[in-house]
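Researcher: Let's continue the batch. This sequence belongs to Methyltransferase domain-containing protein, and it's 493 residues. Same format as the previous ones, please.
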Amino acid sequence: MIDRTAVRDTANYLRRVRPIDPEEITEYIEGTPHPAVVRETLREEAFDLRLREREDGCFVPVDDDPVRPPGWAPNAFPEEYAFALEDLLVAEFGANWHVGDSGDELRETIRRLKADYLYGNDVEYDRIAALGYAIYHLPGYYAAIGYVLDDLAENGLLDRTLRVLDIGAGVGGPALGLHDYLPEDAVVEYHAVEPSAAADVLDRLLEETGRNFRSSIHRTTAESLFGLNDSSKADATDDRAAVTADASPLEEPFDLVVFGNVLSELEDPVAVLEAAVDALAADGSLLALAPADRETAIGLREAERAVATPESGIEVYSPGIRLWSDASPSDRGWSFDVRGDLAVPPFQRRLDEAAAREATDEPGEFRNVDVQFAYSVLRTDGKRRVDVRASDDRCARMADSEDHVTDRVNLLAVKLSHDLSDGSNAVYRVGDGSQRVDHYLVCTRETVLNDGLRGADYGAVLFVENGLVLWNDDEGAYNVVVDDETVVDVVAP
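Model: Same format as before. Here are the structure tokens for Methyltransferase domain-containing protein:
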């Protein structure tokens, strides 16, 4: 049994002097343990000691500066992860996994998964379903999380040592994206919660991560992890026993809790979200991702609004910040970001080309390279991506738009979509945190005084001066017309 206290004390002393070599530390520890034992002990203690392991096996202090945005804009899914996924496919079906019966089975599995998500059916992941899900969804979720992390990194809110809880980690898209987003000198203690066969795919893909990305997989449900089960007592007991045997990750708070496309699959997403918020460190962030389709994106927003109330102390950090501190929105909330497409990964291309040769399937049916996602970032320390508030003396509330129909008003608004038009007048969804129904800015004439609307990013805060409020009966929404009498300023990009 190695003396961990002695290892820690020695490491803390040497960190101020030179890189920490496990072979050197051996000489300071009673019993002269083998250097391999010392190295493993240092790895286990590295997060708390803020040490990272270099390629030469020595340990050095982690930089105190927070992570800065790395210019995340992937144009392809990384080869090492693609090869790892194909290793799994070859192991399961053989070298020609994409053709014959196995190809047909995977294509039918993907079709079924797409239909289940579209119609809100319960989804169960056996091994084949997990592989099909990875083929179709892994690249998009890999890309999406980096764009969301930018919201935190731009304000210096991502430390280089991160304790992460990934609820419903699935096959690992968010985990791999997080790993590649962070700098090489970051140290991550990553805990995945995944009860299904997807955990086997995740386990293989995590083998491709670096030595300072220390991962553990907890094969249990989120409800069992947080002790929320009230029914199926036997199953709950079994799950809790599995967590206990594996040492519950909830003993220490988390810097980042991630929900990647899982809220729509939970029986009580609000209860799980509330429990996850309680697991956050005081300066931690909860990040929830969902597909851009209507039902799951709106479901994400409904869960966000249920927990982030003016009384809860939970703040929406981004993207839909509340510009009125005493208000909460109650519109549909269908809002999502869109980023550049990825190149078609080889595993999608093979499966799709085989389908086109062997059947009458539409070409491209099994290619999924769009990066479109709904997301929410929550915090409990009151911080928001931009510190901007609306005031009654300068702005009209969107909640009061009924009183302003055919009037020109000033609005403070968050841009919550890209151009939704068919190519005529540009249309952008907006909100201010008070809206009860949908609001859109409709640009009928662009000028140098309002062209900031077109150029502003998703999540930007805009000041709209002299916009014309109209009711759109067909859409059941308010259109605020931006024309040559309107000025649009970007208050916060």
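Researcher: Any comment?
Model: The domain at 79-292+336-379 is CATH 3.40.50.150 (Rossmann fold).
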